[in-house]
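job 3f2a | input accepted
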Amino acid sequence: MDPTAAPVDLIIRGKTYKAYPFRDKDHEEYNKWVRREYIRRIKDIIGDDNEMLRQAMLQAVKMVWITGPGKEVAMTVAGIAKMANLLCRTTSFTEQDLASNDALRETVDAFTFLHGIQREGAEEVDDSPPESQEDPSGN
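job 3f2a | predicted structure (139 res):
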């Protein structure tokens, strides 16, 4: 699939929205959201440990949403809801709106199509019949 600047349809909870490719400001907003969410999650885990929080903040400063820990945060239901809001130029989607596997898949598929990305685990399927498995001994 070639990336496109034209919008694609994204269906969430039975309603069709137009999804657009990320602009530079969308990438930056998503990175900032991922960093804030990462720090929030770390605080929930470590509590008042200031040294660990400082280390997490140093890591978060370099974090981007497309790789490593940033990708892990981005691919949560909350992260995909944020992605849907940026794709559709809205702020109305919540985690509950994207709670179904279909809504999550639709959103990620729309993003990957719009940006020409091959989604992990979505390799092209070889649906040709399997080659004959003849017994080499002739039996």
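job 3f2a | The first helix runs from residue 24 to 46.
job 3f2a | closed
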